[in-house]
Amino acid sequence: MAEQYGFYVDTSRCIKCWACVVACKQWHEIEAGTVSRRNVTETVEGTFPDVKRKFESLSCMHCENPLCVANCPTGAVSKREEDGVVVVDDTVCIGCKTCEQACPFGVPQYVEVEGEGFKMDKCDTCLSIGREDDQPHCVLTCPVQALHFGPLSEMEALAAEKGGARMEGETAPSVYVS
Fold first, then answer.
1. For the 4Fe-4S ferredoxin-type domain, which residue ranges apply (predicted)?
2. pLDDT digits over 97-148, tens only?
């Protein structure tokens, strides 16, 4: 396999503006109130007057050892050889939700497709709609440049500058956070 790609989230820059979430929904024509391929979470640490807030914009982790791929009974979920991005073939997905149960991060979500039942939906790094400058639209839209996407070696270097680290887990998530 070619080099694994992934994300780096600079939490010192994220301002919880939701631009990444809105861009994703807009570019993928996702109806409001349904699935969200990218989510912004908030963590609060400490007690008054020493309180720290941290925001993280996360999507599919595009794991090196994805359990969703290993557990999909139809082969609808696969990992691309050229960059390690985990993708879904919705023509093969039967909506059984096995991938959802296997994913330790709760990433897979389901949308009802008229006449076909439920199909899994998740971040595909904008492969299904075309990337601009080889970047997902969430990265390009971030007004404070808190999101980055590329080869893991580059994401590791960016994270190291800020004292960040790779997210942990048995699946080896392809995400660095600082």
1. 5-35, 51-82, 84-113
2. 999 999 999 999 998 888 888 889 999 999 998 888 889 999 999 999 999 9
Domains in the chain, ordered, with CATH?
A: 5-177 (3.30.70.20)
Question: What are the backbone dihedrals phi and psi of residue 100, each rounded to the nearest 5 degrees, phi first?
Answer: -60, -40
- Residue matched to tokens 């897979």: 108
CA angle 101, 105, 109 (to 5 degrees): 60
Rounded to two decimals, what is the model's pTM? 0.92
Identify the residue whose tokens are 């990992």: 79
Q: Measure the CA–CA gap between 24 and 36, rounded to whole angstroms.
A: 8
Q: Tell me the C-alpha distance between 173 and 177, whole Å.
A: 11
Q: Find the angle CA(156)-CA(160)-CA(165) to the nearest 5 degrees.
A: 70
Give the number of C-alpha atoms closer than 13 A to the C-alpha of residue 149, restricted to the C-beta side: 27
Looking up tokens 């780096």, which residue turns up? 8
Neighbours of 153 (CB within 10 A): 9
